[in-house]
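Retro notes
What went well: the complex prediction finally ran end to end.
Inputs used:
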Amino acid sequence: MPDAAGLDALWDRFRRRDRPALARLLTLAGRGESIGNIPRPDTPSRVVAVTGSPGVGKSTLIGQLLEHLRKQNLSVAVLACDPQSPLTGGALLGDRFRMASAADGNVCDDGVFIRSLATPGGQGAIAERLETLIRVVEAFGFEVIVVETVGAGQGDTAVHSLADVVLLLLQPESGDDLQFEKAGLLEVADVVAVHKADLPGAEFTAAQVRSMLDLARESKTPVLQVSSKARQGVAELWQAIQSLPLRRAVV
Amino acid sequence: MANPIRIVLAKVGLDGHDRGIKVVARALRDAGMHVIYAGLWQTPEAVVRTVADEDADWLGLSLLSGAHMTLVPRVLELLRVAKLDHVGVLIGGIIPEADVAKLLDMGVARVFGPGTPLDEIIDFVKQRREATNA
């Protein structure tokens, strides 16, 4: 742990946009060590949480989003949560590999920052102190911050309060319509995307979700079909995300 | 468990054999480390970027292609440029004995060849960490 002078030096480097300094501050904050006052961001970032069951394609879609956002010259930080063993404390953090593959390996420029976060169980599928970590990357000046949850599927709703937009990924054949009626995920989703829409049944799943959302009263939650494999629907998805208000600013 | 060791594992260049590095990744994970698996076909630039963003203590590279004398010096140079000299570099894979000494001279912390017991790798990483923390 750095002393006060060491911490000042880190923040100094941070203000000069030194990425290793940003990375170290995230490590310290993630461990729960004091990092002092986090500077206020010049402009608030748009924080997008991506959630959905394991294997639904969160990392892959984020990779495609990265590519799309870089084409629009938006800078992006990704905080990718992966599970940590309750037995050994160890973790294998593999999200960034799939993001890079999905983005044609082109995630090496200064406009992209990817950080893997080991996430203990029982945290609502997000890393400890995620709120602080978000504020640190926001202060660094990234325009978009993407948070990938562990992917617990049902009930990982803790991201809702930390994000401006919660994107829920589903895939075709992911259960009957009652599955979507369970309390939790669908309630906190601001945008729903049926991923792997190149597979048969995507349209049916989208219709099911749509009708479940509209069951009580008409819902404004957009339901889109996206295929990372066929490279379809990513631009429309970002359009939907972008058109929503910055919820965190309201709170 | 409070401050787990963070290690990036990657394959640079074009060789597509990742069985070995996955075995090592699993062993280090089970030893309580946080293993950031960067996977196949990484460029030296992408690997160094990963090490920087992930604030890693270690970088483990696996090479079975014979390109180690080209790729490893490049990675070491980029680490120096990025002021990441404190990151320990481990090499695994098929490295001819004559090249091992050269790699160590360049600043590689250790070269682990085929048949290395997994505990040897774990112990090396953990001991070095205790030494630098002392």
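What we learned: The radius of gyration of chain B is 14 Å.
What to try next: split runs per interface for comparison.
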